[in-house]
Amino acid sequence: MMREQNPAKKPSFDAIVANPPFSYRWEPTEALGEDMRFKNYGLAPKSAADFAFLLHGFHYLKDEGVMAIILPHGVLFRGGAEERIRTKLLKDGHIDTVIGLPANLFYSTGIPVCILVLKKCKKPDDVLFINAAEHFEKGKRQNQLTDKHIAKIVDTYQFRKEEARYSRKVEMAEIEKNDFNLNISRYISTAVGEAEIDLAAIHASLVDIEQAIQKATAEHNAFLQELGLPLLPSAN
After folding, report:
1. Phi and psi at residue 118, in whole multiples of 5°?
2. CA dihedral 160, 181, 132, 161 (to 10 degrees)
């Protein structure tokens, strides 16, 4: 895309979708630091251009537009320059939704990825987290999202639904307490509660097993005695 230097002539879009190369090494320069795309947020680190791709797209988004970008999970929690960019995007109310996807979805990489949904004029003072990482169909070489899995993500996003171990709206105050870390596991517990143990039932079962052992031992020893062979020791 040719960049228009005159802000009045800058193209802008209702919807922007991006799938950039993950953690691409680049050469940020002093001149880029003054670039209108990055000036208000800072430059992504040399080791990972993820936020540079994000800010590039976001720069061309209309005020009422929506942007979705696929990125590695590192953008959610890495420190340094990325933390500063992430913090400003959050404080400015631009990060709308964080969607965690399953691992091994793409030919190019097996790592799990996330989708960040950004808006310029976001209304709710929270971020919707969707943990869709465990919802997929396992393939021989790759995992797949079925139409059903995709529909669930879209429905949850559109209506900002909350569901245990799947989705949650998190107030900005909580995100701030977590130092603007967006790691999904901080906000959505994926732990499955352990089943309660019925001690009485287990005790009764063990008594039955013990009695069965004693009976089997006695029967076996009766055969051994007839054959004049050494007996099995008693279970008691």
Report:
1. -120, 145
2. -10
- pLDDT of 8 reads 63
Task: Look up residue 142 and give its two tokens.
Answer: 């790759």
**pTM score, two decimals?**
0.77
Chain centroid to CA 235: 52
How do strand 167-171 and strand 126-131 relate by DSSP bridges? antiparallel
Checking if the pLDDT of 195 tops 70, the result is no
CA distance linking residue 64 with residue 122, whole number of Å: 9
Q: What is the dihedral of CA 109, 157, 163, 183, to 10 degrees?
A: 50
Residue 1 has pLDDT above 50, yes or no: no
SS3 (DSSP) at 12: coil
Helix, strand or coil for residue 188?
coil
- CA dihedral sign of residues 46, 186, 127, 154: positive
